[in-house]
């Protein structure tokens, strides 16, 4: 009941707590994208930027490391359901997903977090475990299945093919090149080139 | 002549100015590797850390951007003379060179500088032009020659193969994986896999 004694008017859209959570995660990303990275994020700064009280944040996240990992996770697109018919088709879906993730804010966040990784080992461990490894496991699954079906070489070292796919598609490879030097079908060409290299 | 009227005793090792330059570049790298990246570098801070006066720095570098680009260049190993006999041999030399560059301090510097790239566009332009592009040109040269000799596919898109090689070998691909998950012959396996993908 509101203070007037009437029930509060129904709000359009998300309930208040979901909107606050959204604002907190977005504020965290904004701060991470700034030059100081993890060092620039504090519960105070996030609260001020998100327009919420600190307790609203602490109710959901016990410390800034957990908040940061959850915020970083929002930058990753969900991996779509893989068709599972051919390795090529699945790798295309993955490569296109990774390509779409590489906008500038995502890149800045990622670089700033990684650049401070040595100072925040627990944060990085959690990030690897909760955000990165589940995605790498999806890729490994596709490659394993390809070996089983005979689409890929039986002696393929999955731990080599995996960073080749991820490294080709992610910002490191592109950050230093003018973006327009990459062909529009870059993701497809990477998959087909890699596939020729790892096919049976 | 020194103030005592005698000629100064010969100093062992590098002359004083070369030693100062070395100290200045090393101090700049130390500061770049810290979390604030470019924002943490100032002529004052470099002078203090290198134990030199600010004028010693200004005598050689008119501003911090030029100093930073020169400092970043010291992190890159010189590309060895390429044998030029086969594409495979040349790519192996390049991949091994890139692999050896990926120590933690190099990675931190690079990530911190890239993370602030949007704020320092002139610095990034200069870095691309003076440090990165000459290296990319060496790789392009190897790939072009491979197409001419028929070792590589005639329709190879060099601008796809190039980021695949660089991206596979650089920290992005490795930063998020435990280093020991990569096989010791990672560079060789990357080149052979890529080569199967781009060979004629």
From TrEMBL, chains A, B:
Signal peptide annotation: none
Pfam families given in the database record: TetR_C_11, TetR_N
Keywords: DNA-binding, Transcription, Transcription regulation
Gene3D superfamilies: Homeodomain-like, Tetracycline Repressor, domain 2
DNA-binding region: 42-61
Domain HTH tetR-type: 18-79
GO function terms (MF aspect): DNA-binding transcription factor activity; transcription cis-regulatory region binding
InterPro entries recorded: DNA-bd_HTH_TetR-type_CS (IPR023772), Homeodomain-like_sf (IPR009057), HTH-type_TetR-like_transc_reg (IPR050109), HTH_TetR (IPR001647), Tet_transcr_reg_TetR-rel_C_sf (IPR036271), TetR_C (IPR011075)
Protein name according to UniProt: TetR family transcriptional regulator
Organism: Thermomonospora umbrina
